[in-house]
Structure formats: C-alpha cells, structure tokens
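User: Before I run my own analysis I want an independent prediction to cross-check against. Here's the chain; please return only the structure tokens and, at the end, one sentence I can use as a sanity check.
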Amino acid sequence: MTQPRKQYPSLRRWLLKLHSDLLVINGVIDPYAAEYPKELSNFERLVLTLEDRRFFKHMGIDWRRFVRDAFRAITFRTHGGASTIDMQLVRTATGYRDRKIRRKLYEALLAYIIQHRYSKVEIMRSYLQIAYFGTGMKGSEAAAQQLYNMHPTELNVDQAASIAAMLVFPRPRNPSEGWTYKHLRRANYIKAVYARRKNSFDKLDKRIFS
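Assistant: Structure tokens:
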C-alpha cells in the first residue's frame, strides 16, 4: 500500500492559507457597522469591560495582558487566554479551536493584519454579530431578541450585563443552578467594574465617533 507523501512546511501553502482565512474574515465583517449608532451601547461597553478593556488602545494584540497571563501560567496561577476581541473575531470566523501556541500566534498575526483593513468599531460589532451566547443564540441580536425581545442597543445595564456574561458562560438549553450562580456572579462583577469606568467610556465615545 502506497504511503501518503509527507508534506513539508511550505511558504506558498502558508500564504495561501493566510489569504484564505482573511477572505473568510472579510465575509463576516459588516461594512456598515461603524455607521450607526454613533455611540457605544450599554451592551458594547459591558462587553469591553469584560473581554478587552484596552481594545481601542492596541493593534489586535494586548501585549501587556499577554505578558501578565504568561507569567501567571508559568507560576501555576489562574490566568486567562490573553485573547483580544480581534483574536476572538478571527477564531470565531475561521472556526478553529486549537489551543496550541502556534495557532495562538497565527491568530495574533491575523488580528494584527485586520487592523489595517477595518476600523475598531467594525471589528467589535462584527464579532458580536457572530459570537456564541448559548443554545440557539448566535450573535448578540439573536440573544437580545430571544431573552428580552429587544435589540442589543435597547438593553439597560442589567440586561446587557446578563448577556455579556454569556460570552464566558454560554446559556445551556436547560440552565442548571450551577450555571445560574456562575452567570449571575459574572454579570454582577461586570456591572461593578463598569460603574467605576463609566466616565472613561463617555470620553471614549467622543473620541472614536467625533
């Protein structure tokens, strides 16, 4: 039986793969996302508070967070994945779930490249349109409609915090007491942090939409 030929690393194949993934990402970018509304909604503010507080300051990779989480990892302490919203858009759009360091670096490269193609608001809002919030809820519009019969821009702080927390704890088909406890704790944490940062978001609105 003929053995399959072993494929060696190829720059050409890698560039073709890069181009293919960029086309996939382009397919989920909403070109009108930055047009309206001309301010961050409660929901968007709370997502930034939870997922990526330096989102508008970095170029797809938050090196400060990366170094912090790497240090925590090597000292065997609790740490996050150091993923930015840009990297989460890349991961969700391409469908890859490999946690290897090579894949993480590739995601970071794609996240950096898209900074030169799309605005930060386009990236954030496009990610929220495809993010997974739980059973039957792909995208923030589906989640807000199913849970509150509203558009995400209409959510108050409590409602927005509840849905934002589902990015960490997606809602199962039949929520258990354990899930409810973890979800509520995360939602309350987001609201507490946001209350301390609200003024900075008011200033951010003026800067990015002026």
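Sanity check: The chain has one domain: 12-209.
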